[in-house]
Amino acid sequence: MHLEIVSPEKKLYAGEVSLVQMPGNMGSFEVLHNHAPIVALLGKGRVKIIDSLRNTVFMTIAGGVVHVKDNHITIVTEK
Fold it and tell me: What is the largest CA-CA distance in the chain?
């Protein structure tokens, strides 16, 4: 899967991932390979990213929106 995390100012993250866990407005949720298409609001919190090499990266966001379709994940946030 390809993940991009962007803010109005710049791209914060871009790369191949195997898992993304996000702070949804209704609770935390995660996206794995072949996840159904969604658009969801994100709350303030921590995004957990497991990249294609199995490294774990954490990023704190102030909320935003996530779009998932065809194994492409885009998070738009005001970091």
Answer: 30
User: Do the Cβ atoms of 6 and 14 come closer than 8 Å?
Assistant: no
For range 7-27, the mean pLDDT: 95
The domain 2-77 is placed in CATH, from the list 3.30.230.10, 3.40.50.1470, 2.60.15.10, 2.40.30.270, at 2.60.15.10
The predicted model scores a pTM of: 0.93
Interatomic CA distance for residues 1 and 31, integer angstroms: 10
Single-letter residue type at 62:
A
pLDDT at position 79 is 72
Query: Tell me, what's the pLDDT at 9?
Result: 93
